[in-house]
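Example 387, ligand 3-thiaglutaryl-CoA.
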Amino acid sequence: MALHPYDLYDVRSMLSEEEQAVQDTVARFTDERVLPIIGDAFDQGRFPRELIAEIAELGLLGSTLPEQYGGGGLNSVSYGLICQELERGDSGIRSFVSVQSSLCMYPIFAYGTEEQKKRWLPDMAAGRVIGCFGLTEPHGGSDPANMKTVARKDGGDWVINGAKMWITNGNLADIAIVWAQTDDGIQSFVVEKGMAGFAAQEIKHKMSLRASVTSSLFFDNVRVPEANRLPNVKGLKGPLGCLTQARYGITWGPIGAAIACLDEALNYSKERILFDRPLAANQAAQLRLADMARRITSGQLLSLQLGRLKDAGKMAPTQVSLAKWNNCRMAIDIARDCRDLLGGAGITTEHAAIRHALNLESVITYEGTETVHQLVVGRELTGINAF
Ligand code: TGC
Ligand code: FAD
């Protein structure tokens, strides 16, 4: 029996019927709606916002949240498969869904009041309200504890001053989940578009995640009512708790990018005739392709087990760090190698490999750089904090 080239260990057979159905639905969306337009969108530096309504219609925003808030009640493995299939199209599309679901809807769900959940979550699930997540600041994203943005209590309101940088969806967003230092530790505030003193400025000249909006946010005495403070968490564990959710999804996403690249390189190398034989007939080429399949298989098994642990309530942040590190490294190495196997053809966005390789430069950096995740694992092993 022939094995599936992108699923050598038959991970698919370990999925429930519902998980398989979710994967098939999102795969179809990527094939039919994302792949035909994404090369041009990347060239033009444009996030395809025309897809938002369909993404929402498919239930991909807040898919794991309870139905009473507009969510789909899906399990974590299904959410992972959503991320994988979207990133097979482009990391920018997966980023949009990650930020909306894990970084914006999740904190409102986990740290907000019942009133706040009812106020924002159903509209966010429907794609009518878009969010962004402001944690990183210009002076150093790896160390968010050194936060300079402050929120000061003033009567019944809060007044926010500071700046955030590299914020996905910044200029698209209707609301921003903003983390700020207070007299009582780090807290989060829902800052609404149009509030006086709040501005977003798009970051241009990106060579990565070009089909995604990335912005700086500025807060100049922005007055936010107490009703917009998420009251149920204080301290760094608030934003880090959101990051654990998003990083979990990001362990799956790059598997999709890597599969897209391997698919392209396999097809190309079987058809490309060099020295009177297909490129794929050379041992050196097969070694490279086999190594890609080996690394994808390892990544798939890692994420699936992580998802099962998460669904069982047993997932530890260090396990997420290991998988985020492994799978981003796996995918960026594969994308670069596929780009090389395509020769000169690999340098244009007519083919996907270079777009994925460039996107993965962001994916390996955001949500904790590779080094940050290595140091988290190192700390777990040694008991010594090297940050
Ligand atoms: P530490 O001071 O030890 O811990 C503070 C508190 O947080 C708890 N905690 C966590 N909770 C949940 N999940 C985690 N992953 C957690 N890690 C720590 C911890 O238990 C403690 O709680 P408590 O109750 O004792 O106060 O902090 P640390 O030493 O662990 O943190 C250091 C470090 C470097 C790991 C952390 O600062 C870090 O992760 N830095 C990287 C920052 C980062 O990833 N930024 C991402 C910004 S968002 C983004 O990039 C979005 S891109 C999205 C897209 O487009 O897809
Ligand atoms: P720095 O923290 O300055 O790191 C620079 C280098 O130093 C890195 O190589 C790092 O690994 C290394 N380093 C750091 N600490 C150590 C150490 N102790 N030992 C050795 N080396 C170390 N943030 C948000 O809040 N919201 C978003 O929506 C968001 N979206 C993003 C979208 C894109 C496209 C990008 C590129 C970034 C996004 N980010 C977002 C920010 C992202 O999380 C940060 O870029 C990331 O956390 C790293 O921070 P930094 O860029 O300031 O790099």
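Summary: The mean pLDDT is 98.
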